[in-house]
Amino acid sequence: MKTTAYVTLVATFFLMCVVRMWWTMFLLFGVALTLALVVGKNRFCSDLCPMGALQDSMGQSAAPRRRIASARWWKFLLVPLFWGATFYSTFTYHHDPPVLWVWMLRIMISMFFLAMVTQMYLGRRFFCVHLCPLRHPVLEPARRSRNHLLKKRGPA
Q1: For labelling, which of 21, 43, 77, 132 has a CA lying 20 to 30 Å from the CA of 107?
Q2: What are the extents of the domains in the chain?
């Protein structure tokens, strides 16, 4: 387990729960997107992601990895649900930061709960691989675009 992921986990907890910065999740997503565009790899997922750190710390209780044919389709339900709830909460409660903070915390806790349950029954980092609402619609396309542009440009 990477120490950097634990540092990110502690920082996320501090910013979200102590400082009550409702936009902590967006800050993390910005760091992740920047890394994907600059490095071209999923460094955030492997080295910094607080959700990954939590899953790795619970790794001993993970089920053996299973292959489920419908798993890749689950993200088409979960990802829009996550982003819909996030944007709905942000735009509905932007005038009331304490309420907005509660909604963002609920979304983050729900994702954590889903990650732990899927890890217990479907295997280590199942959530990250199949259901992560950041990796699939944001980071993977950014990483692929960056790598495609670099290939087109040729060696420097």
Answers
A1: 43
A2: 3-153
